[in-house]
UniProtKB/TrEMBL annotation:
InterPro entries: Bact_solute-bind_prot3, SBP_3_CS, Solute-binding_3/MltF_N
Gene3D superfamilies: Periplasmic binding protein-like II (3.40.190.10)
Family, similarity comment: Belongs to the bacterial solute-binding protein 3 family.
Signal sequence region: 1-24
SMART domains: PBPb
Record protein name field: Transporter substrate-binding domain-containing protein
Ranges of residues in domain Solute-binding protein family 3/N-terminal: 114-338
């Protein structure tokens, strides 16, 4: 409609100019011409104003549309960037269980290709330092498997002897990256360290001389001398729950306890059945397991407190060990020859 008015105004202006041309030079003609010029000027001015208004409106409309498009594009781009950032963060959290890998001692040391791992040096079938300086046992195989999954070859591992009473101290001081050494998970210990796993569930039992007939279970230990290692929990459990009159004797290692049993200084040794089975297999005919398991001991891999990323990475490695058959193969090789019945893996590693 505005463009129609513009055309009409221009036509009127042209007519006024024709009228001016037709007039003569007289005074009346001059007045007419003046009126015509004024009319023409007004019409043309109105036309120009209309044209300017129309053009300005078009420009404003175009500018508004362009600005809206820019705002829409900017908003969409920002939303996509936010989603991408959120997705990346979610992927990192899924990989590390929400922990920060940069704060994990285990993962940082593994990046450098080296790990220091605490194990037992004196537990046949589980953790032993051999005369040639090599190491063997189920726990040793677990430690090596986890290290490999974290990117550290066997040549990058330093094994450190870690006795039961030293474990929390070595972890808190950063002397080891993690410990794989028949380390039972308890509520008290979880206040000081993190645990990955459990990777094995043992049952507390008793080791006695092969010809012993009067010790038939934990309730038959009143008046007897029971040996366990300093810093471990099994002997205290026996005294508290089964035989309050038992005399407890502690040594630094299970090997010392077994030597005391052999010499008759103590009447029985208590700890987890898989540990005792290793000693029985080492000295055929000397000892026997009573065979009455009376508690569950969940073995975990201990590492620094609140290292969520490291804990999750190790637990993932343990699941892989079960899945690819390496877990069972390690048990068959290390404790199978003793006649010990290989148990099923913990449910948390098969889910």
């Amino acid at each position: 409609m505005k463009y129609g008015k513009l055309s009409a105004a221009l036509a009127a202006g042209a007519a006024a100019l024709l009228t001016l041309s037709a007039c003569g030079s007289g005074s009346d003609a001059g007045a007419s011409v003046s009126d015509a010029v004024n009319n023409a000027t007004s019409v043309v001015g109105g036309a120009v104003n209309t044209a300017t208004s129309v053009a300005g409106g078009a420009v404003n409309t175009a500018t508004s549309a362009a600005g809206g498009a820019i705002n829409t594009a900017t908003s969409a781009a920002g939303s996509m960037a936010d989603k991408a950032t959120s997705a990346a963060g979610s992927a990192m959290n899924n990989a590390t269980g929400g922990g920060d890998p940069s704060k994990s001692k285990v993962l940082n040391d593994a990046k450098g290709g080296k790990l220091t791992i605490g194990i037992k040096f004196d537990q046949p079938g589980l953790g032993v330092k051999n005369p040639d300086g090599s190491f063997s046992g189920f726990d040793v195989d677990v430690a090596k498997y986890v290290a490999k999954k974290l990117g550290v070859p066997e040549t990058g591992i330093t094994f450190v002897e870690t006795k039961s009473a030293e474990r929390e101290d070595k972890i808190s001081k950063g002397e080891v990256d993690y410990i794989v050494g028949t380390y039972s998970i308890t509520d008290e210990r979880k206040q000081k360290v993190n645990f990955a796993g459990p990777y094995f569930i043992a049952h507390q039992d008793l080791l006695v001389k092969a010809d012993n007939t009067d010790i038939t279970g934990p309730e038959a230990l009143n008046g007897k001398i029971l040996c366990s290692v300093t810093g471990s929990t099994p002997a205290q459990k026996v005294k508290k729950d089964y035989s309050q009159q038992v005399e407890l004797q502690e040594f630094g290692t299970y090997t010392e306890c077994v030597e005391q049993l052999k010499s008759g200084v103590v009447d029985a040794v208590t700890t987890d059945d898989v540990i005792l089975a290793g000693y029985a297999a080492q000295d055929p005919g000397q000892f026997k397991l009573v065979g009455k398991g009376f508690s569950d001991e969940n073995y975990g891999i201990g590492l620094q407190k609140d290292d969520t990323a490291g804990t999750d990475a190790i637990t993932t490695a343990l699941k892989d060990m079960v899945k690819d058959g390496s877990w069972k193969a390690a048990l068959d090789k290390n404790v199978g020859p003793s006649g010990y019945k290989i148990p099923e893996p913990p449910a948390n590693l098969t889910s």
